[in-house]
Amino acid sequence: MATAHPDASAAASPAPRRLKRRRTAADFVTQVVLPLVALGLLGFAGWFVWKNRVVVGNPSPPIAPARNPFPDSVAASGVVEAQTENIAVGSSLPGVVVEVLVKVDDEVQSGTPLFRLDDRELRGDLAVKRASVSQAKSELLRLEAEPRQEKIPVVAAQVNEARAGVARETDALRRAEDTFARKVTTEQEVIARREALAAAQAALDKTEADLNLLKAGSWEYDCDVARAGVATAEAEVAKIETNLDRLIVRSLMAGRVLQVNVRPGEFVGTPPGQALIVVGNIELLHVRVDIDEFDISRFDSRAAASAVPRGSLQERYPLTFVRVEPFVVPKKSLTGDNTERVDTRVLQVIYECDPTGRPPLFVGQQLEVFIEAPVR
Questions:
Q1: Dihedral angle sign, alpha carbons of residues 281, 286, 287, 292
Q2: 3-state secondary structure (DSSP) of residue 146
Q3: Residue 312: beta bridge partners?
Q4: Cα 203 from Cα 119, distance rounded (Å)
Q5: In this predicted structure, what is the pLDDT of residue 187?
Q6: Can you list the residues of the chain whose pLDDT is less than 50?
Q7: Which of 123, 276, 354, 376 is the most buried (most CB within 10 A)?
């Protein structure tokens, strides 16, 4: 039997067919939608990376810093203050405030009352001391008016009475001695009469001395003591009147009220530096400039200087040198708290600033100050 060739058998077998099926929605999503979404996300990622890339540039600041008008300068910070400096008015005596007599921005002169403390207790003491003065003056007048003429006849009558007593005792002694000589009375009776006469004579001497003292008037030294008593009483009255005047706190200079920190009903003590009312003369303003200790060698008081207020950098105020406070102090924080300090020490220089024709400056406002210095 003949064997079939393998190629012939393969050729004789039928060819395989490709199966066909209908396309579903899942096929559309996987073949069309997902590739499109992937392309969209890829494009979004590229846009996001481009949008948030790091841009290297030199943007302008929100507020331009102050420009230095000089080729080289000493830069410092300054604070506006009154021409007379900011005078913190306190109370020399403790007490309760009953009336505040000024308000902020009032013009005051030297001696103008600012506020008044409760004075009822001192007024009571004053009435007592004035009564003491009246009593002391009356006592002095009484001494200076001595002798009182109505008293002289009374004392003179007492002298006459004492003389009569001496005459009576003298006669009784004489009769006792006569009877004793005739042995009628005892020696004891004579001795008793002698003692009675001595007592009568002493009473006469006393009344005569009283009469002479009365006629002589008051002793000069007694009048001096009375005058000293009057002076003491008047001094106590003057002291209380002074304390009453001190209860009315007054301004000691002409200027303007810059701040009022006291209200009626508040108790005020006498701690140092307690600023109840701040007064200052602001007709001309001063600028207190703090120069860093490293720039002191470059500072020249004759050099030109100008100031620029913070927040208004287009305005420039020329400064005129006034004085240097030659005591280098620790730099204080500009918050105004005396306890806040830094390690830097500064030299304080006072300049005068006239804001006429420019926007007004206010006490306490901070300035950027530039002082011309030699080019390094």
A1: negative
A2: coil
A3: none
A4: 59
A5: 86
A6: 1-4, 8-11
A7: 276
